[in-house]
Design brief:
alpha+beta, Translation, Eukaryotic Peptide Chain Release Factor Subunit 1, Chain A, four-stranded antiparallel beta sheet, 38% helix, elongated
Length: 237
């Protein structure tokens, strides 16, 4: 399962209204696999350093640069070479860092948006191109795709004597949602159905539920009528 954080419309509008401040936008592709956690962190750290280098060239106040640097270092959380035994014991007794959990549960893309008084992270279903940008407003274009693009679809697979419903995802293996078998009385559910809107199957693949001449005519005009009639109802409609 992918862990995704897609901003709501209200959140997006709030981010778009930020203007005139020092804004850093970092986007990078990441891997959801646990064995790639360190590689994800290193990729983020390198892009964050690129953004800080851009920030230094603008002549921004050093205190702001230090604040951004500490914030990004904390998020990256890469292990430091600690030799002092007292410091090692303190680290061992320290409470778990919330960012440790954050890096364990990733998707295919990561957005980190930061201003002097704000830092937001969004885990994205799609892998964006690596980007480190410093400007007077946040770079939000990659978020628009995550907010507007469909990330899953239902596929109705029709065979001679069976019907299957498949749930397909972006960048993720599809799963079988339901299986149906054609019988003289109509299509009969022979597999589990989960996560479907109430009544979807009644409208899609149970033509026997349409009784009466007016309902049969309405069903024939539906998008699925031509495919469903010979396979699921054996010519009864």
């Amino acid at each position: 399962m992918l862990h995704i954080d897609i901003p709501t419309l209200e959140e997006f509008k709030a981010l778009a209204q930020i203007k005139g401040e020092v804004c850093i936008s970092v986007y990078l592709p990441v891997s959801p696999l646990v064995q790639n956690i360190r590689a994800n962190r290193i990729a983020f750290r390198d892009l964050a350093r690129d953004a800080l280098a851009q920030l230094r060239k603008t002549g921004v106040d050093k205190h702001k640069i230090i604040d951004f640097e500490e914030r990004f270092d904390h998020l990256a959380g890469l292990e430091r070479d600690v030799q002092d035994e007292d410091k090692i014991r303190k680290l061992q007794r320290a409470k778990p860092d919330s960012f440790e959990t954050f890096w364990h549960y990733q998707a295919h893309g990561l957005a980190v948006l930061s201003t002097p008084g704000l830092m937001r992270m969004f885990r994205l279903p799609d892998a964006p191109k690596p980007l480190a940008e410093v400007a007077d407003r946040l770079h939000l274009t990659p978020l628009i795709r995550a907010m507007t693009s469909p990330h899953d679809i239902f596929v109705l697979a029709l065979a001679e004597e069976s019907v299957r419903l498949i749930h397909a995802f972006v960048n993720f293996p599809p799963i079988g949602v339901g299986a149906f078998e054609a019988r003289p009385t109509g299509c009969v559910l022979i597999g589990p159905v989960t996560g479907l809107p109430f009544g979807m199957l009644d409208n899609w693949i149970r033509p026997n539920s349409f009784k009466g001449s007016s309902n049969r005519a309405r069903f024939r005009r539906s998008h699925y009528a031509d495919s469903m009639k010979p396979r699921c109802n054996k010519g009864r409609l």
